[in-house]
Amino acid sequence: MNEVPSPDLRIGDSERESALSALGEHLSAGRLDVDEYGDRSARVAAARTRGELAEVFADLPEPHPVFGTPPPAPAKAVQPKPPGAVAYSDRPLSQRVSAAMMPVLFAGAIVLGITTGIWWFIALPFLFGAFAQGIWGKDWDKDRRERDRRRHRS
């Protein structure tokens, strides 16, 4: 470490984290054994000034702690959508078509029931919905699982 800027200046948590990270790299490179790493880590935790922190790294090559700049923020993890929340546009075309046909069929059944006097036609949209779920429902679940697997891989 060349010259420490303002060795009497107090340090904060970000400088201690930077120093501990640098010590970890020295440990993984084999420059420090586990006991010496523990001793130096304790000195880093107890250090109050830049000079005290620089003494820990006096006999070590780079990397050294970074003074005055906070460590980079960790990348935000992408939170997956809840399993029940699926956008309408993510649904398969067959399911969107059958959903769009339901109100039309229901209105048609009401008109047919009123004009002919046969009210059981009102059940046709519900029967169609059950039929559509039986035909296309399992494919939709399979498509959703495949899409979720692709998202998790990337």
UniProtKB/TrEMBL annotation:
* Record region (Disordered): 61-84
UniProt KW Membrane keyword: yes
Q: Where is the composition biased (Low complexity)?
A: 75-84
The record, for Pfam families, names: DUF1707
Membrane-spanning ranges: 97-114, 120-137
Keyword line:
Membrane, Transmembrane, Transmembrane helix
Q: Which residues form the signal peptide?
A: none
Q: Which domain of life is it from?
A: Bacteria
Domain DUF1707: from-to ranges: 9-61
Name used for this protein in its record: DUF1707 domain-containing protein
Q: What is the native source organism of this protein?
A: Amycolatopsis bartoniae
